[in-house]
């Protein structure tokens, strides 16, 4: 939300931001007029639209970059268990590939995970998230810088490299792993 306010040149002080629970709770609060606006993601955004609410902005349309998903481990675990982390990363990337290339399988998984039977909501959720997932899964350095600033840490380009390690991604690229996905 703070990134959106910055991009729209709205002073942070002009908006009351209050903690208001998880997505489902925020949707209920919005529908009972306990909130004037809230952040939602699919599938709640689709439900909100069907209830007559208007989407003011898609966070994915912001110029500001921020990590959608990240995989985090300690340096010591990576050093001691590099093969385990590499196998996990391969499995994660295989999952990303399925999401990007097998819409029906992904929608079936979403239906089970979300316990959602409405095909339109499942389709919209898929259409929103699938294009946001990149293969290979790279992290935006600018997004990490913005995230660090959000938590009150000034981050120079060199600082990002202190905690971002994409060596396994690079190793998988050299080994031709990503070519086997196509």
N-to-C SSE series?
HHHHHHHHHHH
Alpha-carbon Rg, integer: 19 Å
Determine the oligomeric state from the structure.
single chain
Uncertain ranges? none
The total count of helices amounts to 11
Number of E strands: 0
The number of distinct structural domains comes to 2
Q: What does the main sheet amount to? A: none
Termini gap: 37 Å
> Helicity range of the residues?
40-55%
Shape: globular
In what range is the share of β-strand residues? under 5%
Structural class: mainly alpha
Mean pLDDT: 87
Secondary-structure blueprint:
Layout: H1 2-7, H2 23-31, H3 44-50, H4 75-80, H5 82-101, H6 103-114, H7 119-129, H8 141-150, H9 157-163, H10 167-174, H11 177-180
Top keywords for this entry?
mainly alpha; 182 residues; globular
Question: Could you walk me through the main structural features you see in this protein, from its secondary elements to its overall organization?
Answer:
This protein has 182 residues and is mainly alpha-helical. The chain has two domains: 2-61, no CATH class; 75-180, no CATH class. Helix content is 55%, strand content 0%. It is built from eleven helices and no strands. The chain has helices at 2-7, 23-31, 44-50, 75-80, 82-101, 103-114, 119-129, 141-150, 157-163, 167-174, 177-180. The two termini are 37 Å apart. The relative contact order is 0.12.
């Amino acid at each position: 939300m703070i990134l959106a306010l910055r991009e729209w040149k709205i002073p942070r002080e002009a908006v009351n931001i209050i903690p208001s629970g998880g997505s489902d709770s925020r949707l209920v609060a919005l529908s009972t007029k306990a909130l004037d606006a809230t952040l939602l993601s699919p599938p709640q955004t689709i439900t909100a639209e069907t209830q007559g609410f208007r989407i003011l902005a898609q966070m994915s349309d912001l110029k500001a970059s921020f990590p959608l998903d990240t995989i985090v481990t300690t340096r010591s675990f990576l050093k001691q268990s590099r093969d385990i982390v590499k196998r996990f990363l391969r499995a994660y990337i295989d999952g990303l590939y399925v999401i990007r290339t097998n819409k029906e399988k992904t929608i079936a998984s979403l239906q089970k995970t979300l316990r959602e039977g409405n095909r339109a909501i499942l389709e919209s959720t898929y259409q929103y998230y699938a294009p946001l997932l990149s293969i290979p899964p790279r992290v935006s350095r600018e997004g990490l810088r913005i995230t660090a600033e959000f938590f009150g840490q000034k981050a120079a380009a060199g600082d990002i490299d202190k905690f971002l390690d994409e060596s396994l991604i690079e190793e998988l690229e050299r080994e031709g792993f990503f070519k086997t996905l196509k």
